Amino acid sequence: MTADPAKKPSVLFVCVHNAGRSQMAAAFLTSLSRGAIEVRSAGSQPAEAVNPAAVKAMAEVGIDMSAEVPKILTTEAVKESDVVITMGCGDECPYFPGKRYEDWVLEDPAGQGIDAVRPIRDEIHTRIEALVTELLPARHVDAQ
């Protein structure tokens, strides 16, 4: 089976609880790529719900994450992704040769208030803008 050159790039964001960082990253990438990138997020030990401070912080920038739920990390999700970005899950993410792996060191928003979550959100936004530019070089992130 040969790879389809027209296939959308796919990115998986992984953190332990899939309740804050990975959810914000997935929401930003979904929004900024306008559907041109397949986006997944998961956690090695998913929380019961998405962090309310993360939901509120994203709402402040016009992105609604209120319907999102933490998802369990599966080997299938890793296999199906071109880029796997981990955020503090250590060695719990399965490794497959040929995948691009990145580890983004970001403060964990768990248990923190909105004032502590905003800078984390903004750092994720900056990294996602760079990722979109890299994965979709013909597109402009700020193009309307």
Automatic annotation (TrEMBL):
Pfam families per UniProt: LMWPc
Keyword Glycoprotein among UniProt keywords: no
UniProt KW keywords: Arsenical resistance
CDD domains: LMWP_ArsC
Residues in Phosphotyrosine protein phosphatase I domain copies: 9-134
PANTHER family per UniProt: ARSENATE REDUCTASE
Listed name of the protein: Heat-shock protein HtpX
Species per Swiss-Prot/TrEMBL record: Arthrobacter globiformis
